Amino acid sequence: MRTDTAQIVRLEDYQPSDFLIDRVELDVRLHPTETRVTATLVMRPNPEGRSDAPLVLDGEEMNLKAVSLNGRTLTAEEFEASPQSLTIAQAPRQPFTLTVETELNPTANTKLMGLYRSSGNYCTQCEAEGFRRITYFLDRPDVLSVYNTRIEADRDDVPVLLGNGNRIESGSIDGSDRHYAVWHDPHPKPSYLFALVGGRLGRVSKTFTTMSGREVELAIYVEPGKEDRADYALDALERSMRWDEKIFGREYDLDVFNIVAVSDFNMGAMENKGLNIFNDKYVLASPETATDTDYAHIEAIIAHEYFHNWTGNRVTCRDWFQLCLKEGLTVFRDQEFSSDERSRPVHRIAEVKTLRARQFLEDSSPLAHPVRPTQYREINNFYTATVYEKGAEIVRMLKTIIGDDDFRRGMDLYFERCDGTAAAVEDFLRAFADVTGRDLSHFARWYEQSGTPRVKVKGHYDPDARTYRLDLAQSTPPTPGQAKKEAMAIPVALGLVAHDGSAMSASCDRVDQRGVFLFDKPEDSITFTGVASLPVPSLFRGFSAPVKLSLDLPNEELLVLLRHDTDSFNRWQAAQSVAMRLLVYLSTGVEVADEDIDAFSAALCSFTDRNAQDDPAFAALVVTLPSEADVAQEIGQDVDPDAIHRARSEMRRRIGQGCAKHLQRFYETLTVSGPYSPDAASAGRRALRNASLDLLAAADPDTGEALAVRQLESASNMTDRLASLSVLTTLPGAVREEAIARFGDRYRNEPLVLDKWFTLQAAIPEDGTLERVKALMQHPAFSIANPNRVRSLIGSFAMLNQVQFNRADGAGYRFLASIVLRADELNPQLAARLLTAFSTWRMMESTRRSHAEQVLRSIAQKPNLSRDVGDIVSRSLE
Ligand code: PHE
Ligand code: ZN
Prior knowledge:
Its EC number is 3.4.11.2. By secondary structure, the protein is α+β, with helices and mostly antiparallel strands.
């Protein structure tokens, strides 16, 4: 077991910086292996810092060439330098200028942090602590500086030079084949928002006029030849800018907004000031290469990064413990944007599906942590579903509790007070407390306490008194470092539904005008009066809080909600709850009467039938069963993935047979005519049609195969083509293999499409899949150094293929471990992320559990693990 206690950073130890950097002049001379960086830092002691402290600048793998103070070169005795830090013990007590020259090798940078090369182009990634890989610096988010960046490079190899802010100068260097550009960003920013790009890039652009009438040039840079694939992203950017003006009153604040797409990127995208850098999969789209889901993701991520301009950049974070301050809030904002641009109920269901699949899973795993963590060993490991998605749910709950108008007033106050500062979660909450006069200290517990609260509810109807009482109890399970839990402030949006579907005129004085009851004690009861008949309670409407509800409604009552609830989310939830109950029974050997499955299937048919034309996207969600991973999470212990797989296959078959007539009709009638458009309405028709195909194939493989083959050949867009290939992957045989091979050949020069092809194959729930995945690692397009390739092949195998990753012989675990160790030598962030697939190991049955434990222990014993992997493996074993 690893005994190394790499340094732990604690929230309670926060101290303001002893020095400040007001201005940064960077001179970067790009070269493939010997890039020279000269950083001139205009500094002064921080009045809020210690007055006797040495100056200690952060570095990582730095190669120092020269250092001078106020223009005088320092002698070896006057400073101490290592690759990790630069210390000047006797730093001046008045303002001073420090000049540091370093040399970097961007070609050798495989961590994709700091300055690196992707497809030959130069780019940077500085969040969270990558700037220290470019120069020595006070690399912490509460040190804000105004940057001037001069970039110089070979004119032919690197024609495009981009930096933060506005370009103020450019030209050629006489007598050489080099040119330069100077960029100035007037907005003080922390180093993590710094970026530069140099390369050979194609460009699309348009002009945007802001609400106050200023003109902004919007541009997206992509691999030359792929310009037309950036049009959708550019349009999404314009819509995001308009939306933020309208909904939050936020205007853009520079003359240009640039986005660059790169092929090698650890995350989705990065909000560098005025120069967002994107994983190209979240920019590039064409009907031939991108699915409806890809388009929706592009729209959401373009919006997310743009919205950071105010929530993250203008108001930034005091320290990395406050990460949710920008991420949770910005996810909330991008979710609201997508809801406004598309269908709100459909989007809400999609949000909750990911929240449950990723965040609830994390919250019940050894990696559980609060939305605002209190300590970390490696901050890169805290860009999690908890910080992002649960962080967004907290903002949404706040809005639910205080109402739309006060929410907007609170946001305005937050921006007004905190603009230009590095803020903390407390500053955010204080704005809302001040505009509403409410005490939000109890609510703040959502940031501190980890684990998913469970809310148990029982209903009691008294026909004589015509009252209906709900008894509620809440508890939160223990999580690492938090054995005992306090009650949370949980907003419960609720209503009552009569069995015949009619509206009930019941009332309850504990429920506010918005239909919300704030449940903030361990136990509570609320009583409705004037309840004319036995109601069905509809709780957590719109998923008003990120909790697990235990309420044992019989299937018939859930089906009443599916039919009649006015809340769409709960209509969907009702169907899911019935499906989940049946799946859990079937998976764990509890007997299920045929009639129960038939009744459910009949309810699905008639529900889908009624909604297929008006809201096919919603109907598609309703007919989609919980995933195998969802069922495993629900069972929670001694999980047998094979049994779950058999149960789910059986249910799909039964529903497919039971609803065959309807499904065939949807398949025939929900075609979309005309050229492909990614709009939500057309996407919804494709979604239901393809969900129907999937169920038809489950019911009758021969028919399914014939339909899928025909669709694969005739499809005019990637959504339909991929959906049919996906159906074929569930049907073993020569037809499938032939289809897979042809698809791979057709798209051999399209890496982003091959990623989908890798993913489909890695997810095949059959014994040969591990060998298939190993063989695909030899495919010319695969590279262990490219995060998208690794995630789509290896990540999908580990995260999507429940039966094969969790093979009873442990081979899936051993395979993942070997890849994690290989990847760790190149890219620790990528390796650590893959390793989180083990976070479910404790819920497996004992054979699998002991294989997983053995594998984790063997990883932990390896020498020279990165801090990223060391942190995940040790927490996974705790
Ligand atoms: N801040 C990025 C976002 O918008 C995520 C990110 C984190 C990207 C770290 C790169 C590195 O969510
Ligand atoms: Zn973000």
